[in-house]
Amino acid sequence: MIDGIYTLANDGVADQLMALLNSIEVNAGKPYPVCVIAFDDRIERVREIVASRPHVTLMDDPEIFGRWEDFSTRVWQTHPSALTTWQAQGINGVYRLGSNHRYAAFDFAAPFDRFIYLDADTLVLSSLEVFFTALDQHDFVVYDFQFKDPAHIFNVQSDRLWQQFPHEQVESEIFCAGCYASKRGLFPTEQRDWLVEQLASGDAELLYMGAPNQSVLNYMALRSKVGVHNLALHLPVSQRAGNSVTSSHFHMRDDRLYDREAALTYLHYIGLSSRLFRAVCAGENIDFPYRELFLHYRFLHEARPMLVGKPVAYNAPPSFSDRLLRKLGLASAR
């Protein structure tokens, strides 16, 4: 049985990908093989990164992607307004269809029997064995606190949501699609066809258009009655830790983060634009939460850039001169 790690990337997140791979190398607990799933065809730098690392491979198989793109398209064709809304916004087809390439980890042609998927804007900070141990007893394992915010998973205004999924299920099984562990073949073709049929019969109104890949993956797991095991609800209280960059109370020790005395398993820089990471890696002195930790892992094997000028907060309002230049079309927002 092969256990491995997947992530999803293109050249736009190459710096984050390097930081993630370095953090896996140092902290994952075992030399897990890693497969980088191509978000799209902008992968020149990604190919170079993969080629330089013996345990890392690239998945860019159009046949595998085609199966899951077709599924994603059929899913959103059942929705009463999604495709027309996105078209009005200049989006042809499914919004961020490349994000759904992460579903390829479930494909029978995928390389790993069991896997953990991590978004590229993530750092691994402790052993991942806790996920794989849980997979001995469960088919789907997560570790986050997304259950506190179901409005970013499903359409909570839909009465059908609470008829289909009891409150206690929504409040314990929904998850962030940036980190989950599961098994190859969990959603075979016939199961995917059945899910599309359920969506077409009215379930499509449950989906949240703002995060399509995340909403659909949650629907797939909950509607299929997979049983989502959330470590944040099952680990001993003393071992539970947060994972989101939006939490300001973590403290760093020995290049790792701690939530009180519990070590973080991973840190997800969710909500921070990839432009911030590219700019900092190019020497711009932009400050953002846990920046030093990111820089440590990004430049683990090479010299860090000299940051120029005084630090500027990533969310600082633009200066008057910047606003004027943007209004005149002479400068663009970061």
Range of strand content: 15-25%
Low-pLDDT stretches are none
Structural class: alpha/beta
Average pLDDT confidence is 93
What kind of sheet is the major sheet? 5 strands, mixed
CATH class reads Alpha Beta
Distance linking N and C termini: 45 Å
Any idea what the CATH superfamily is called?
Answer: Spore Coat Polysaccharide Biosynthesis Protein SpsA, Chain A
Task: Give a verbal description of the structure.
- The protein is of the alpha/beta class and 334 residues long.
- It has a single domain, classed as Spore Coat Polysaccharide Biosynthesis Protein SpsA, Chain A (Alpha-Beta Complex), CATH 3.90.550.10.
- It is 35% helix and 17% strand.
- It contains 13 helices and 14 strands.
- The strands form 5 sheets. Strands 3-2-1-4-7 form a 5-stranded mixed beta sheet, with helices on one face.
- Strand 1 (3-9), helix 1 and strand 2 form a beta-alpha-beta unit.
- The longest helix has 16 residues, at 62-77.
- The protein is globular, with a radius of gyration of 20 Å.
- The chain starts with a strand and ends in a 7-residue tail after the last helix.
- The model has no long low-confidence stretch (mean pLDDT 93).
Topology:
Blueprint lengths: L2 E7 L4 H14 L6 E5 L5 H8 L4 E4 L2 H16 L4 H7 L25 E5 L3 E3 L4 H6 L5 E3 L16 H6 L2 H7 L5 E5 L5 H12 L11 H12 L4 E3 H4 L16 E3 L2 E4 L2 E2 L2 E3 L5 H8 L2 E4 L3 H8 L9 E6 L6 H8 L7
Parallel strand pairs: 1-2, 1-4, 2-3, 6-8, 13-14
Antiparallel strand pairs: 4-7, 5-12, 9-10, 10-11
Helix pairs in contact: 1-12, 3-8
